[in-house]
TrEMBL record:
Entries under InterPro entries matching the protein: 2Fe-2S-bd, 2Fe-2S-bd_dom_sf, 2Fe-2S_ferredoxin-like_sf, 2Fe-2S_ferredoxin-type, 2Fe2S_fd_BS, Beta-grasp_dom_sf, CO_DH_gsu, Diverse_Oxidoreductases
Region of interest called Disordered, as start-end residue ranges on this chain: 204-225
Domain 2Fe-2S ferredoxin-type: from-to ranges: 2-78
Keywords: 2Fe-2S, Iron, Iron-sulfur, Metal-binding, Oxidoreductase
Name of protein: Carbon monoxide dehydrogenase
Lineage: Bacteria, Pseudomonadati, Pseudomonadota, Betaproteobacteria, Burkholderiales
Organism: Neopusillimonas maritima
Pfam families according to UniProt: COXG (PF06240), Fer2 (PF00111), Fer2_2 (PF01799)
SUPFAM superfamilies: 2Fe-2S ferredoxin-like (SSF54292), Bet v1-like (SSF55961), CO dehydrogenase ISP C-domain like (SSF47741)
Length: 410
């Protein structure tokens, strides 16, 4: 591991990275800037193109550690860039995108063309774009967009653009104009969870009325992953439930497929096995529990990798215990997860989200069973049994009932 200090989209970033980590993976997995797409991962297709010190670079073949002290600009960092603002409008007007997968890299290259070659004709534009592959559009709309922006700045000179062109001609970084945004950056995922934790600490509801939090609604959180909100009731006092939920090994024993192999304070290492139709994985990794004792709320942050498919998973499990009655408590669960690799195709499937909600429901039943054990019992908690077939059939049956109006989401 080595310490990496760079500036990403105008914000300072300091992280430890492995020497073999590529910049594209670092941007997507560590900073959750998923606008940078990875496709060929050989530096051929151009989908992963970002700016390093104002110049387009293939992030899939650039080591993150080699960017020490550099300024990185991704598709999320162009909001004040006058060239990119015109290019985005032109791409929209000329129908220059369809699936959009190549678009972030295509826009970065197009911006470079406008900067370096103010008098470029169609033939030169096509040559410059040849390093970016698009499987949808046939390039006609993309070429027309670049040419229209070049013409715009010839007809209506822009002082900022002229200054950026002079800097590029002198070999200096032609970066987007700076904003008043703060120069510290802690990552989208962490900031989001912190905001939610503050809302919970202040007594705010886990989700607005009608949002489906209680029923287990699943939504996509842009740039972060898929969010599933659910919960369950337990016929025990809230204080007792919270005490139990603070015991990581006891909690793991209630989660189907989960095993904790070692624990040091609030940090644990273990694995969780998942089998769902064609998806069969065993993620092994580590997690850290952050607790708020006064509000009986916590967030378990974890990451792991499946040894078979090499897919990577990250997830934050936030939960809060509230009192419903003297002998009854409610546990609200907010799961935010993301997958990278071959298994990512399953992550947003509605059936998979139903599967996750069913796991949460089974987890709640297991918590009740564990709490029912006699006080003072030293007997180890048995691991929760996991029946993939039973759970799969349960999910399918619940979906069929909802389809015909005969059941509600759990």
């Amino acid at each position: 591991m080595s310490q990496l200090n760079i500036e990403v989209n105008g914000r300072k970033v300091s992280r430890e990275v492995l020497a073999r980590t590529h910049l594209g993976d670092f941007l997507r997995d560590d900073l959750r800037l998923t606008g940078t797409n990875l496709s060929c991962e050989h530096g051929v297709c151009g989908a992963c193109t970002v700016l390093i010190d104002g110049k387009p670079v293939r992030s899939c073949i650039t080591f993150a550690a080699a960017c020490e002290g550099r300024q990185i600009t991704t598709i999320e960092g162009y909001d004040t860039d006058p060239i990119m603002l015109k290019l985005r409008d032109a791409f929209n007007t000329n129908h220059a995108l369809q699936c959009g997968f190549c678009t972030p890299g295509m826009l970065a290259t197009s911006r470079d063309i406008v900067l370096r070659l103010p008098d470029a004709d169609e033939e030169r534009v096509r040559i410059e774009l040849s390093g970016n592959i698009c499987r949808c559009t046939g390039y006609q709309g993309i070429t027309a967009s670049v040419l229209s922006v070049l013409k715009h700045f010839r007809d209506e000179p822009n002082e900022q653009v002229d200054a950026m062109r002079r800097a590029a001609a002198q070999g200096k970084a032609a970066l987007p104009p700076e904003t008043d945004a703060p120069k510290t950056f802690s990552g989208f995922e962490a900031k989001s969870i912190q905001r939610e934790a503050k809302a919970v600490a202040n007594g705010a509801d886990a989700a607005p009325a009608g949002s489906g939090a209680a029923s287990g609604a699943a939504t996509s959180a842009p740039g972060k992953g898929t969010s599933v909100k659910s919960g369950f009731n337990v016929d025990f006092p809230a204080v007792k439930v919270w005490e139990f939920m603070s015991d990581l090994k006891a909690v793991a024993a209630c989660l189907p497929g989960a095993v904790i192999e070692s624990q040091e304070g609030n940090e644990v290492k273990g694995r969780i096995a998942i089998k769902f139709g064609p998806m069969n994985a065993a993620f092994k990794g580590a997690a850290t529990l952050e607790r708020d004792e006064s509000n009986m709320s916590a967030v378990l942050r974890g990451a792991g990798q499946d040894s078979l498919s090499q897919s990577r998973a990250k997830g934050d499990v936030g939960y809060r215990v509230t009192s419903v009655a003297d002998d009854r408590a409610r546990v609200d669960v907010d799961l935010l997860y993301s997958l990278q690799g071959p298994l990512a195709q399953f992550s947003r499937s509605g059936l998979v989200q139903d599967f996750v909600k069913r796991m949460i429901a089974d987890f709640g039943r297991n918590v009740s069973l564990r709490l029912s054990q006699p006080e003072g019992s030293d007997a180890p908690l048995p691991q929760a049994e996991f029946s993939p077939f039973k759970m799969f059939m349960g999910v399918l049956w619940a979906r069929i009932k909802r389809l015909f109006g005969g059941g509600k989401e759990e």
